């Protein structure tokens, strides 16, 4: 079965003024769709189409040379944007609660410290890429930045939250001011969905 991208649960303009409608539309309908289409084209009619995206990205070096780079870039883009778009919401709460909150405080001392470290990773990623909150093989939370469309899935870790810092994610509204976009991102995070990702990753 072909890979299908996560669709937005809200209107393109629902995240304004934090993320503008045009950016959401192009990002979701064009960029994310483009990664998805290219991933599907690369694996169609092959045994690789039967694997999950998590499996494919976790075994990149086992893939044939002629599709490895395409799966890395477009499979990575497919997975990263599924995570990104599924964890955005127009009705964001102040932050995590319950077990996720406790685990974040255990790992980063406080939610404020976590926020600061995550924002710093996103701001510090040179050029196009992402910052993630992920679980390692021990189930420990950590923050990492990755270039291009690379993902913690490529280390067989599980990302539960991510911010896209490619210019296509913010340039229309923020131009060169990536820090302002990162600051605005904290207003549109779906903490319930991230808690759900956290729970699944631990299982
Ligand atoms: Mn993007």
From TrEMBL:
Its EC number is 1.15.1.1. GO terms for cellular component: cytoplasm. PANTHER family: 37S RIBOSOMAL PROTEIN S26, MITOCHONDRIAL (PTHR43595), SMALL RIBOSOMAL SUBUNIT PROTEIN MS42 (PTHR43595:SF2). It comes from the Bacteria. Residues 96-196 form the Manganese/iron superoxide dismutase C-terminal domain. InterPro entries: Mn/Fe_SOD, Mn/Fe_SOD_BS, Mn/Fe_SOD_C, Mn/Fe_SOD_N, Mn/Fe_SOD_N_sf, SOD_C_sf. GO terms for molecular function: metal ion binding; superoxide dismutase activity. Destroys radicals which are normally produced within the cells and which are toxic to biological systems. Keywords: Metal-binding, Oxidoreductase. This is Superoxide dismutase. Pfam families: Sod_Fe_C (PF02777), Sod_Fe_N (PF00081). Mn(2+) binds at residues 27, 81, 164, 168. Belongs to the iron/manganese superoxide dismutase family. It catalyses: 2 superoxide + 2 H(+) = H2O2 + O2. Residues 3-88 form the Manganese/iron superoxide dismutase N-terminal domain.
